[in-house]
Amino acid sequence: METAILFSGGKDSSLTNIFLKKILPCNITNYTVTFGVNSSWKYAEETAKILDFSFKLFQIDKELLEKSVDRIEKDGFANDGISILHKWVIESFLEDVDVDVIADGTRRDDRSPKLELSDMRRIEDKYEVSYVAPLMGISYKILKPICYSLFIIEEGPTDSIKKSDYESEIKDLMKQRGLYPYDYFPKHSQSRVIGYNDRHSF
């Protein structure tokens, strides 16, 4: 089964790799998305190499990011704009790449990005794929000790962590428009996986 994981270099998408390798007979390729606004995708590539994960870069038209920022600016907050962008990314990816499974590291407690059940079903029917989010049924209180037992994790304020998620390019595009990102994003912590605690523990 050809499986694509949308990979940011963070602990959730890294753990998704481990879970799927253990429970699914599949060939996994990690794809990091870029809209060409900056080169933050390089951090995911570095993490993938450290963890021995396959890696590919997937370039998406900047127009989708522009529309997402339009929505964020209109709403006055980021959650819905990021979730809509995630849905657009998945659909754009599946228009170009033929896979059996598409997966991501979204969690039960995530506010964004997160797909609605109706979106999951529509994507599966339209593109004849299986959408998999193996962390969706697990609380953060359980996921955190799992991740910290497996990985060496760098964690800190969001702008100090070099990570390859949507937020980085959204914020840079906002700055290009003369917007102040923290008018729309609450300050929060981020994390990035920088190694294994014990690569033979699973």
UniProtKB/TrEMBL annotation:
It comes from the Archaea. This is Asparagine synthase. It comes from Candidatus Methanofastidiosum methylothiophilum. The lineage of its organism: Archaea, Methanobacteriati, Methanobacteriota, Stenosarchaea group, Candidatus Methanofastidiosia.
